[in-house]
Amino acid sequence: MGVVESVGADVRTLRPGQRVAVFPAPGTWSDFVVVPADRAVPVPAGVSDETAAPMLVNPLTLCMLYRAIEKALRGQTGPVLQTAVGSSIGRLVSAAAVRHDLQLINLVRSTSGAEKVRTLYPSQPVIATCDDDWQGQVRRHAGERGVHVVLDCVGGAMTQDLAELLADGGTLISYGHLSSGTTPFEALPLMVRELTVRGVSILHWMSRTPRERAEDVAFAQDLAQSTPDLLDVADSYDLADFKPAIEHARRPAKSGTVLLTTPQTADSGNEAA
């Protein structure tokens, strides 16, 4: 999120001093950046700077993930197994599942984390992977149909365990790699059971149609206004303190988005986050 300093001669939709969220745009970890006008989205009135900072990246990621889930389900309602439900994206997926009546089973690292998620989404099963029988718990909640889709941002050694929980013909959607180490796959089970593994990255969001992108941006703006608690912030760091900010962002138990901020400028008197 930033404040418009100046606009090109042909730009009619933006003005200096206006708050905007920008995506995609390289170089945003800086005091100033030049971006195409069509990638600068006005921040709705009443939305805080802290909420505006993740206003595009997180909701647009949700839109891409939900399309991938719908495609993988092929008209079914689930069940879908989600890892890292306590993450910023994980909470967005859980909230979307409630609205769209999607059968979701959530995984979280710790028992305490599971209790927090149950409080937020009491209708969704939550399982702590620290439990020895966590896979058995997933199978009991999934029932005879099994898990049709796994939504994973953890990766690493756990991926093989997740693939084993898929029903034949199921899909594992990977959109992150929070763990360390490589992500192993056994080729034979993938072939024999006709499993699908696909990746989803927000870096490909610009390949969506103009209409889809406009709908996604409108959704993001509405989400920031109506439910800002879904775009919560873990902490803010000065741009010069980017190293501890990155360390914080990598913490396993982190909840919310870590922000980098720049100090107020003498010219604009505004702070960009």
Automatic annotation (TrEMBL):
The keyword Oxidoreductase applies. Keywords: NADP, Oxidoreductase. Coiled coil: none annotated. InterPro entries: ADH-like_C, ER, GroES-like_sf, NAD(P)-bd_dom_sf. GO terms for molecular function: NADPH binding; oxidoreductase activity, acting on NAD(P)H. Residues 2-260 form the Enoyl reductase (ER) domain. This is Quinone oxidoreductase. It comes from Streptomyces violaceusniger. The lineage of its organism: Bacteria, Bacillati, Actinomycetota, Actinomycetes, Kitasatosporales. The gene is qor_2.
